Amino acid sequence: MTEPVEKAIIVSDRASLFNLLIGLSDYAISSGILSVDLNGENIVAVPFIPGGTTEISYIHQAYLSLTPLAQRYRAMLRPYIDFYFSEHDIGGEAIEQ
Predict the structure, then answer these.
(1) ∠ CA(40), CA(73), CA(27), 5° rounding?
(2) pLDDT tens per residue, range 2-56
(3) What global pTM score does this model have?
(4) How far apart are CA 10 and CA 47, in angstroms?
């Protein structure tokens, strides 16, 4: 679990995040794909210690269809979501079919 801090910096794009991480020699908890070609060698991924949990979600506008890439992402998450719902005795569907 991440410990509480007095100050937190919130960013919404990867470039700002990486500039802060490099400039402050800090860390971030995130999900995604890291590429040396895109990010350079200053940003490295360190796996989580087993036993923890991470919540990942997405938000989209109801009147717009998901892009093909978003549909693939959702399909890849589906087994994990189904497992979570079955393990936590939660009714209903996490993702609409």
Answers:
(1) 35
(2) 677 787 788 888 788 888 888 888 877 776 667 777 777 888 777 777 676 767 6
(3) 0.44
(4) 22
Strand (E) positions, 1-97? none
Cα 48 to its chain centre, rounded Å, is: 13
String of b and e for 63-92 (b: at least 16 CB within 10 Å)?
eeeeeeeeeeeeeebeeeeeeeeeeeeeee
On whether the CB atoms of residues 54 and 31 are closer than 8 A, the answer is yes
CA distance linking residue 2 with residue 46, whole number of Å: 15
Going from N- to C-terminal start, the domains of the chain cover 1-51, 55-97
Sequence-distant (≥ 6) Cβ neighbours of residue 73 within 8 angstroms: 58
